[in-house]
Amino acid sequence: MSNAKLLFAEVVLAIEFLHSNDIMYRDLKPENILVDEQGHLRLTDFGLCKPNFKQGRSRARSFVGSPEYMSPEILLDRGYNYSVDYYTLGVLLYEMLVGLPPHYNEDKIQMYKDITMKEPSIPSVLPEDARDLLDRLLKIEPANRLGMGPGGILEIKNHPFFSEIDWHLLE
Q1: Of 25, 21, 15, 17, nearest to 47 (Cα)?
Q2: What pLDDT, on the 0 to 100 scale, is given for residue 150?
Q3: Cα 74 off chain centre by
Q4: Tally of domains within the chain
Q5: Short-list 109, 57, 67, CA closest to 88
Q6: What is the 3-state secondary structure (H, E, C) of 34-49?
Q7: 44 vs 145: CA distance, rounded Å
Q8: What is the model's pTM?
Q9: How far is CA 94 from CA 53, 58, 61, 110, in A?
Q10: What is the pLDDT of residue 59?
Q11: What is the average pLDDT across 13-24?
Q12: For 32, what's the count of Cα atoms within 13 Å in the CB-facing half-sphere?
């Protein structure tokens, strides 16, 4: 679990960096994460990024992303903001801990329905802090998602799941 936690924390830092530079990533998935020669993670493929995005002032509307990682608000064409990156953080962590994305289904139509209508089933074998983090990142309603409060991504970094992480050292 601690290897997954450390690797996931590096992804959180990468998303934090992008958001601090007004960039919405929109394509977080394992295929877009590389490991450098020191064993640190690097995001790649910035083709779907939305630059110059000011959180709170506007909403994006493009139908973008990989099916298993699309957030409910993209699928429902509601317009979206950084909430999509927080949702995909949850999908990525779920896949790291469980082996598949939370709503994976070969039938894409059914998968889309599940993403927009069903809270994911989180295995009880996962530690409580991991289950809580997943539950709070994978909320269907973006406003209820961890990271969408006034603290932004700090809400995610301050979650008990990361209690062992020294964020300054990791940076």
Answers
A1: 25
A2: 92
A3: 14
A4: 1
A5: 67
A6: EECCCCCEEECCCCCC
A7: 25
A8: 0.92
A9: 27, 29, 26, 19
A10: 67
A11: 93
A12: 21
Which one of 22, 27, 45, 129 is the catalytic residue? Answer: 27
Please give the pLDDT value at position 48: 75
82-115: burial string, b at 16+ Cβ within 10 Å, e else: bbbbbbbbbbbbbbbbbeebbbebeeeeebbebb
CA-based end-to-end distance of the chain? 20
The answer to whether 16 touches 157, Cβ cutoff 8 Å, is yes
Given its phi and psi angles, is residue 56 left (phi above 0), alpha (psi -120 to 50 degrees) or beta? left
Angle 119-113-75 from CA coordinates, rounded to 5°: 95
Show the CA angle centred on residue 166, arms to residues 162 and 168, nearest 5°: 130
14 contacts 43 by C-beta, under 8 angstroms: yes
Find the mean pLDDT for residues 108-133: 96
CATH of the domain at 25: 1.10.510.10
Domain encompassing residue 67: 2-170
Active-site residue flag, 45: no
Segment among 21-35, 55-69, 72-86, 118-132 with least mean pLDDT: 55-69
